[in-house]
Amino acid sequence: MKPKTLIIRTAGTNCDLELSHAFQLAGAETETHHLNDLIENPDQIARFDIIGFPGGFSYGDDVAAGRILANRLKHQLLEPLQDAVKRGVPMIGICNGFQVLVKLGLLPDPHAAVQTVTLADNTNPRFLDRWVGQEVDSQTKCIWTQGLTSFELPIAHGEGRFVTENDNIIAQLKANKQVAIRYPQNDNPNGSVDNIAGICDPTGLILGLMPHPERYIDATNHPQWTRQSEEVKSNTPAGLQFFINAVSYVKDRNGATV
Ligand SMILES: NC(=O)CC[C@H](N)C(=O)O
């Protein structure tokens, strides 16, 4: 059976269709649910093997990107989400989804569930929409980035500058191998500390990242695809690999039951 993926959307979410498509290509079944539906029936979260928090402009980025959705989740759905964490459900928060996960406190440590990091305004305070290099930290525990090293993904954000409450937090993230992805040293688009583009929780199951892997699921998504070699074009696109990794993880772990 295919792993069941829950995609959580609300007013202003705009990457849910692409995220669902990426998971389906990777071999998962998907259901997209509105936040209000989940708040009414929180028990249904227990049916899912993977959870995705898509990108977009939830609640119009009012107050700060992801803040309102994070507060609604924190006050109305934290318990079923933490139950999912305890069940070892892989989760991914992309862009606005990453902003939500850190403001909700599911990252960097879902058990503490307090906010210690954030995505602040880009240093050059503009919305950035372009492809950027990505480098996977060779030490990372992240299950989503297994087998990936360096590649490119699109970014599209105004509030993507990763910062931590203090220097201890960054030292802890490094010591626990929670830094998953960085921008190249010479092309940090938003001023993130230590060039960080994505982090995971201490188990490696929950990933949050600013770039959009769901926008690179076919060779033709890449802006240079017509100039790429046949070999590069026939490789699994790096973005799709994230979803394949999570689906394989769940299948391997659950063996014949999923
Ligand atoms: N693509 C996104 O999810 C954008 C996130 C958020 N709206 C920002 O601009 O930072």
UniProtKB/TrEMBL annotation:
It comes from the Bacteria. Keywords: ATP-binding, Cytoplasm, Glutamine amidotransferase, Hydrolase, Ligase, Nucleotide-binding, Purine biosynthesis. GO terms for molecular function: ATP binding; hydrolase activity; phosphoribosylformylglycinamidine synthase activity. The keyword Cell cycle does not apply. GO terms for cellular component: cytoplasm. SMART domains: GATase_5. The keyword Hydrolase applies. It holds the Pfam family GATase_5. Its EC number is 6.3.5.3. GO terms for biological process: 'de novo' IMP biosynthetic process. InterPro entries: Class_I_gatase-like, PRibForGlyAmidine_synth_PurQ. Coiled coil: none annotated. It is an enzyme of class 6 (ligase). NCBIfam families: FGAM_synth_I. This is Phosphoribosylformylglycinamidine synthase. It comes from Poriferisphaera corsica. The lineage of its organism: Bacteria, Pseudomonadati, Planctomycetota, Phycisphaerae, Phycisphaerales.
